[in-house]
């Protein structure tokens, strides 16, 4: 159209896909709060727009992105914008543990056991259905 270029339409489609993977998935609640509030002089939309441009530049794809790839990309982006790595890592660790994912994102190395759970956490404390079988 005369108002929006083909390149912008393509980027809107990528942005929608990234929004689905990050915001709509529910996996990145804490990280999303950091991202959307990143630049106070910009709207939440523009903050996400900038992130989606950076994500495309880094990954060159909008599909087949694992939660770990997205988490690492979000960590790197937030830190590159001046947020303290320790705070970002703690917030994303909370997101990752809540999601139940099991792999090892680079930004959380050393903070997760091989199963993806907290190292000191008893796995049966997380699974009520499994605990009932132990009582037998």
How would you describe this structure to a colleague?
- It is built from 6 helices and no strands.
- The chain is globular.
- The termini are far apart.
Helix share, percent? 55-70%
| Broad shape | globular
**In whole angstroms, how far apart are the ends?**
68 Å
Number of DSSP helical runs: 6
Strand content: under 5%
Order of helices and strands: HHHHHH
Could you report the average pLDDT, rounded to the nearest whole number? Answer: 86
Q: Which residue ranges are poorly predicted, with pLDDT under 50 across at least 5 consecutive positions?
A: 119-124, 132-136
Count of individual beta strands: 0
The main sheet comes to: none
Strand-pairing-aware structural class: mainly alpha
Over the alpha carbons, how many angstroms does the gyration radius reach? 18 Å
In short:
Helix content is 58%, strand content 0%. The protein has 6 helices and no strands. Helix 1 packs across helix 3 (44-59).
Helices and strands in order:
Elements: H1 6-24, H2 29-36, H3 44-59, H4 67-80, H5 85-99, H6 128-134
Can you give keywords for this protein?
136 residues, mainly alpha, disordered C terminus
């Amino acid at each position: 159209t005369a108002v929006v270029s083909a390149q912008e339409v393509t980027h809107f489609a990528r942005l929608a896909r990234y929004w689905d993977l990050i915001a709509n998935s529910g996996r990145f609640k804490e990280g999303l709060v950091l991202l959307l509030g990143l630049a106070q002089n910009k709207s939440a939309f523009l903050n996400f727009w900038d992130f989606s441009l950076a994500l495309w530049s880094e990954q060159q794809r909008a599909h087949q992105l694992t939660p770990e790839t997205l988490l690492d990309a979000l960590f790197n982006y937030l830190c590159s914008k001046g947020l303290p790595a320790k705070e970002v890592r703690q917030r994303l660790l909370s997101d990752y543990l809540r999601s139940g994912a099991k792999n090892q994102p680079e930004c959380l190395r050393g903070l997760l056991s091989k199963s993806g759970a907290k190292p000191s956490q008893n796995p049966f404390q997380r699974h009520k259905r499994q605990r009932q079988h132990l009582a037998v």
